[in-house]
Amino acid sequence: MVTATVTIDASKTGWGAALNMNQQEILASVIWKKPLRLRSSNQREARAILHAMRRFRKRLKKADQPNILTDNQIAVMNIKRKAAASTLAQTVRKILKEVQKMGIVLNANHVKGIDNRKADALSRLELAGDYEIRIKYLNIVLLSQDPKLEADMFATKYNKKCAIYYAPTSDEEAAGVGDLQAD
Question: Residue limits of the RNase H type-1 domain (predicted)?
Fold first, then answer.
């Protein structure tokens, strides 16, 4: 028996999900496209469930009865009763259609927000490159330690501190992609 649990959460900026299956965890974090910024948390949560189902489709098809966990009670209720208020009906229908296409039986259960921290954090991740070390603090460390810096391992061309840098995403000017993958 193959069990799969997808813990899902949505925020104003995006959605996050953690699929646990076969003693393996797969994470997803997506920022909403501007036209998809939805007004209510119920709309966002339903849309996040739909997107997570699509993202993990191939794996979920192999599960006997995938379990969706969300901290949104309305989303759970709508999936269980296979109906929703007019503002959510279209998304709930799409979720049910997706389930039917996959040929699976979907379980949806409520989880307390405190137990949904990983998906919550994933739903709020910012874009790669949005963070950087402040020069003031970098200089304090450099003066006190006297290290020889050769490469910046978590940079973009806009916030790099060294001539050689490794970007978190594809970048032609970077020495490579990834965090600590430098040789």
Answer: 1-128
